[in-house]
Amino acid sequence: MTAKVENLYQEIQQFLKSRISSTVDAEDLCQELFERVLPKLANVGQDHWRAYCFSAARRILTDYYRRKGRQTTSRPMSETDLRPEMIPDESECSTAVQAERETAATRARIAGWIPEEMESLPDIYRLPLELYTQHRLSVREIAVALGLEHSAVKVRLHRARRLLVSRIDRCCRVIRDATGQVVDYEKRAPVACCG
Question: Other C-beta atoms within 10 Å of 37: how many?
């Protein structure tokens, strides 16, 4: 039994080392894992020890990365952080705030077009989209409510979204930033759909 546990310990340690850049952290996690697992191995059949330990190792690895993700690396402020050129003046701040307000207003304006355009969609696409966006039903719930297959609902939702985009795009070109967020729009034609 001891040889089997030692081999398992080595296997788990290699597994953790292959997924964590710090060897010390991997060894610590392996030790922590076996402190938790050893008392419970008596209740697990020997044929299942390996699977049980690797399952526990995956969980402990997930916890490790969650803890690591919450840690922030902050440094104390230094005198160079307080140089006058490092502090934005009021006009820069107010310009940035104004630009953000304008962008928010643009997004709200574009979002206001969607309900009107949704109403003009054929029922076959409008109904699933309304159930999904306004009533917050899942795709499976919509499928049951409409008596459709799960895949059919997904296709209809996809087509409804494409139709909405094409209808808005027909009269306005929506401008997005590098992250895909809407920042502005330009009218394409003298059609009444764009504000």
Answer: 21
Task: Encode pLDDT of 156-189 as tens digits.
Answer: 999 999 998 888 888 888 888 777 777 788 887 6
Q: Using CA atoms, how far apart are residues 5 and 34, in angstroms rounded to an integer?
A: 9
Q: Report whether CATH 1.10.10.10 matches the domain 100-187.
A: yes
Distance separating alpha carbons of residues 195 and 184, to the nearest angstrom: 12
Question: What is the distance between the alpha carbons of residues 145 and 33, in angstroms, rounded to a whole number?
Answer: 47
Structural element, H or E, at residue 81: none
- pTM, two decimals, is 0.48
- Which residue's structure tokens are 């009021």? 90
Task: State the Cα–Cα distance between residues 92 and 98, nearest whole angstrom.
Answer: 10
Tell me the per-residue pLDDT of 46-105, one tens digit each, with 9 for 90 and over: 788 888 888 888 888 888 888 776 554 444 545 554 455 555 555 555 676 777 788 888
